[in-house]
UniProtKB/TrEMBL annotation:
Transmembrane segments: 54-79
Main location: membrane
The name this protein goes by in its record: Phosphate ABC transporter, permease protein PstA
InterPro entries from the UniProt entry: MetI-like_sf (IPR035906), Phosphate_transprt_permease (IPR051408)
Keyword flag NADP: no
Gene Ontology CC annotation, any one: membrane
Length: 92
């Protein structure tokens, strides 16, 4: 009984979600091209425009977080493997 109710509720949520995603993909796919990714956003109320600012911002955020996170992670791993007690011991 619980399995049937769970399946029904899951399908009642998943079907409309998939319908919306499919509708967005079908209607939006023709608008996606190279110019869309490389042009600046259009002013409010005008058609067209792109997402170059968003792409550049994403790249900058990922580069900055990598510059901080990668060295910190490598140094932490070195510390853990070299200086944090005996190897193979269990800590409680």
């Amino acid at each position: 009984m619980v399995r049937a109710v769970t399946t029904f509720v899951s399908l009642s949520v998943a079907i409309p979600l998939l319908w919306i995603v499919a509708d967005v993909v079908i209607k939006g796919l023709p608008a996606i091209n190279f110019e869309f990714f490389t042009s600046l956003p259009a002013p409010f109320g005008e058609t067209g425009g792109g997402v170059a600012n968003a792409v550049l911002g994403t790249l900058v955020i990922n580069a900055m977080s990598s510059l901080i996170g990668i060295p910190l992670g490598v140094l932490t791993g070195i510390y853990q493997s070299e200086y944090s007690g005996e190897r193979g011991s269990t800590h409680s």
